[in-house]
């Protein structure tokens, strides 16, 4: 299993989850866990995904999700689980 952490943040609009999940499905990326909230009109989603069946590397996925985020008006970040854990270690 190759876990990656994907975060999506921005102004809430229709279709954010659909567009992100469509990208993931088209690239054989499985969602293992997902949490999303909307606070005062701002959308926030965090997903733990398994990219083991995806032919693309984490860098390529991150770049494509970044472009998708720009298209839909949100910021999407993608990090390998190890990097995420090291950045958020106390």
As a percent range, the share of strand residues is: 35-45%
- Which residues form runs of ≥5 with pLDDT under 50? none
Largest sheet: 4 strands, antiparallel
- Please give the share of residues in helix: 25-40%
As laid out across the biggest beta sheet, the strand order is 2-3-1-4
Q: What is the element string, with H for helices and E for strands?
A: EHEEHEH
**How many distinct beta strands?**
4
What number is the mean pLDDT?
92
Distance between the termini: 25 Å
Give the class from helix and strand content and strand pairing. Answer: alpha+beta
**What's the overall geometry?**
globular
The number of helical runs is: 3
Radius of gyration: 13 Å
Structure notes:
There is one protein chain. By secondary structure, the chain is an alpha+beta fold. The chain has a 4-stranded antiparallel sheet with strand order 2-3-1-4. The protein contains 3 helices and 4 strands; from the N terminus they run E-H-E-E-H-E-H. Helix content is 37%, strand content 39%. A hairpin with a 2-residue loop joins strand 2 and strand 3. Helix 1 (16-26) packs antiparallel against helix 2.
Please supply descriptive tags for the structure shown above.
90 residues; 3 helices; 37% helix; globular; alpha+beta; four-stranded antiparallel sheet
Quick overview of this protein structure:
37% of the residues lie in helices and 39% in strands.
Helix and strand layout, with pairings?
Blueprint lengths: L2 E9 L4 H11 L3 E10 L2 E9 L7 H15 L1 E7 H7 L3
Antiparallel strand pairs: 1-3, 1-4, 2-3
């Amino acid at each position: 299993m190759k876990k990656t952490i994907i975060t999506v943040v921005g102004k809430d609009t229709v279709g954010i989850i659909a567009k992100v999940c469509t990208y993931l499905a088209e690239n054989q990326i499985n969602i293992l866990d997902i949490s999303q909230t909307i606070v005062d009109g701002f959308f926030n989603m965090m997903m733990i995904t398994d990219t083991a069946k995806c032919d693309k590397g984490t860098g390529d996925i991150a770049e494509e999700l970044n472009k998708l985020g720009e298209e839909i008006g949100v910021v999407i970040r993608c990090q390998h689980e190890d990097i995420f854990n090291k950045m958020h270690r106390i």
